[in-house]
Fold Histidine kinase.
Amino acid sequence: MKRSILNIITAFFFVLQYSSLIGQQLTPPIHNYLATNYNAASQNWDIDVDEEGVIYAANNQGLLSYDGQSWELFPLPNGSIIRSVFVHKDRIFTGSYKEFGYWKRDSTGKMYYTSLIPNLGDYKMQSEEFWEILEFRGDIYFRSFGAIYRYSQDTVEPVQNVISNKMIVYKNQLLVALGRSGLHILSADNDLKNIPNQELLQGEIVVDMAVSGQNLIIGTKDNLYKYNGDTFSTFGDSNLKDELKRSELNHILALDNKRLLLGTVKNGLINYDLKNNSYNILNRNNGLQNNTVLSFVEKYGNIWLGLDNGIDRIEIDSPINFYTDDTGELGAVYDLEFHETKMYLASNTGVYNFNNNKLQIIDGSEGHTWNLKILNNTLFVNHNSGTYFIKENSLYPVETATGSYKIDEISYSASNYLISSYTGLRKLNPLKDSIYQLDNLDFPVRNVVFENENTLWAVHPYEGLYRAGFDNNFAQTNFVKKIAMPDGGNSINTNISKINNQLAIFNGDRWFKYNPFKDSLDVFEELKAFRKHKMLFKDAGSYWFSDTENNSLKFTDFENTIVIAPESLGNRLVKNYEKIIKNGDSIYYVVLNDGFARIDLKKFIKDLGQTPVSTPKVKGFLNIKGRLELGEKPVMAYKNSRDLNVYTSFPTSGAMGLNYKLKGEDTLSGKVVNGVINLQNLSHGDYELELLAMGPQAHIAKRNSFSFRIQPPWYLSNAMKVAYVFCFLVILASMYWFNRLKLRKHQSLLEEKFEKEHQERINKLEKERLVNEINLKRKELANTTMVAAKKNEMLMEIQNELSKDKTNFSNQFKMKHILNKINRAIKNKDEWKVFETNFNELHEDFFKDILKTYPKLTSKDLKLCSYLKMNLTSKEIAPLMGISVRGVEVHRYRLRKKMGLNKNENLTNFLIKNY
């Protein structure tokens, strides 16, 4: 029994916990900047903004700066905590423990600090910490809890040594709150004058003050007062007073004279409406990082909060508001519907009723819910476990055989519905309470679109599109045909809808339309501009699309397109299940993975023309050697330009991003990421870096440019160019001289060649002449020799004949005389001398050479050798020598023997060859 009671109690608490989530209101976009984002301490004691929108925060570790692109931290030289910050013109004044001064950027963009303490001279400061800084009549005032100092024209002087809590400029007077003594006016002669009629403040410690129109709003720890310059009054809102008692006021900011922003110590930010005396609270439960607001400032509709842990930015008047469930119990929202003055949410954890900023789960609806649809004033629910309807905040089953994705009315038959389920299409007739499965459609169907009264298109979650035809009663299927995607497109995540009565199919990143004449899918030319954009909603000629790449939304009537891409949406859209629901004339709801967003389209369009876009600037330009001057066109050496970093400043505004274009010798473009543009290995020359601020509708809203120059490398400098010209001229002159020399050499060679050829021709002619002459002499020698041989032969024949018949001669003496005369004629020495002379002319040094080899040769031997050299036969030699042929042969034999020749060697050839 006890165990049963315990189980009941446990179940009761479980139901209570699950059926009633923490109440939470719709909030404007809140952007969190964690300490890990800006790499500094968590506490930010004060915060201010310059004219351009650059944020400066007094951080525990120094001065923190954010220019919309990157965070920078500037520690004080002594490392002290900075307690206050105030921007005035181009200087950022800060205060810390026994220290105050200002920060300023030099000509290179580098931030440096100037302390003003030395300007006090011999004045001895007490243990003071400076919590507030303001400007009054051109002078800067620094306030600690123990004194007030004035900085004017480079001089610093103490004004009052009083305990003060706050100071403010109101109606051209500097008011100071002194402990529990109320407000005083600091006069021109540095006197403090008490403001009359402030009995209401008696005994109260002023925490903060703000000017709202003509009134001064004064805040104490748990109350608000109003001062109009004459009288003081108390805020009459008891609810606000109770809230301040619970939350503990810390700071006040007057916003557009109609609202007050109250920063508290315990409960975040109170947004108070002065006209309606109402307020809403922004705290940790709905987006802030921390409930302790140490400081805040407003710029361009953004409220920047310095928190005890981090920095937050609130788009306070954004036309987009969010409901975010930070408990995780709601989960991802897949659909949203309004029915009987209530809002219902379909999520992956169940169906919820959202009323008075509180969520309550519908009992029994736990589980994944895909869709909500109102048909004939009945709210249907497509659930993972079946199909249901909601009545009086309770869930009733329609059929639970299988889970379902969607329910639709059958075209031209309002009393019949089609349920797209996990197992196919089911026809439902609620009047007859009948439901049955349509044949031939036994696969999962996520959605259907009617082509006509008898034909529909079914979307399979994974396999794409099917086209099905039915009879007139939608009782039987006539055909089911799978539709192939053109060009082999992927079938997953295919969607179909009707645009201007045409079936439009979105497949991954392309749009097609159905051509009934060709029974095919053609490219939807009119939607080419919306490639990678899925259609979410259509209404009276206007359409909503989601960009599948960057998760932005687009609203269009195909004439004008409005881009809605708030940073807060980020990746919060439910991927592949994005959905927009309209409620009223211009109010739209977008489901998110942790809640939903509410968009006031009319206000969004109105605010577009007023959206501020700051001008981008270059705040630093560095090469590998360090920073360069920004005032004039920076010029750098080529060797230092291999790696350039351009640091940009683009304070937070309504822009969608910052792009750049580099024009010059090299052309580059891209998107600026984290405020840094890295340029590597640029060619030398003049460059212009153009910064392009993209407006809220993705157009160029602001431009700025920055020029710089990279000097040529040393080998392309002017001096080197002169050297190159000089070398070129030297080379030309050298080439000219070399060519001239070469030409002369060539000419000389030609002359030598010509001379040689000429000489060769002369020599050849001379040789030919000599050869001819030798041949002629040889012939002459041969002829004379032959003539002499014939003569001698004849004389020898006559001699022989006479010798035979000498007995017949009567005068023997005369006969003998004749024979002797013939013999002398045969052996005529003069003929030999002539022969020898002519022979030596033809065969110079013959006798000398042969005698050198064979010195024992006789003159007769030499004579025989000369005849053999002339290749004469023994028969021809015999008459020349005056001997017989036999005598010649014998002489030849003896000569061979003297020369030592063997019998096989030809004596004539030996003499011709060797001599």
User: Anything to note?
Assistant: The first strand starts at residue 30 and ends at 33.
